[in-house]
Fold FAM3C protein.
Amino acid sequence: LTGAAKLVVVIAIFLLTFYVISQVFEIKMDANLGHIFARSALDAAARSTKPPRYKCGISKACPEKHFAFKMSSGAANVVGPKICVEDNVLMSGVKNNVGRGINVALVNGKTGEPLDTKFFDMWGGDVAPFIEFLKSIQDGTIVLMATYDDGATKLNEEARKLIAELGSTSITNLGFRDNWVFCGGKGIKTKSPFEQHIKNNKDTNKYEGWPEVVEMEGCIPQKQD
């Protein structure tokens, strides 16, 4: 009888211990689940209030049959320019395909696909290869240009005329160490609305010897047949 009583007591203690542990575990589980659900709700709220990101990081979405672009000139002779089209960075210092002078990216005006990227040294280089390159651009091609360091010293009238035919209005006034970005096209019938130009002026320059960076974004109309 005594042995049976002890067995009952042991079993009772075991069941009581198991019950207490299970209750504590459930409380912790409830607390953890509550924390998880609260965190998920906060994350969902944060996502709903976070502004949407558009291609190339532009401020608003482009309409249909338009290509998003964003570009910036170089910063003094330290940071190179950057050209992005349809969320594709075509030229940048990170890609290591930019250089002193005028940086050029060509894009297919129908598909938005990149065609070519090059830079031409307009300080210590020769303008002749740049002229030949400009002449070789096919109709319907989107042309994006950005200066770095100095993009004007070696420019001659022929080169300026060819760039003006792409839709530029500022190219005739581009001077030593001016900052300039431009987006036009071969075969364009009007002047391009996509152009920014800041003169090199010692009284207003942000950097010693160079003006501030110029940036530009927008939506390029797709070429229609």
About this structure: The mean pLDDT is 88. The two ends are 103 Å apart (CA to CA). Residues 87 and 204 are 33 Å apart (CA to CA). The longest strand covers residues 101-108.
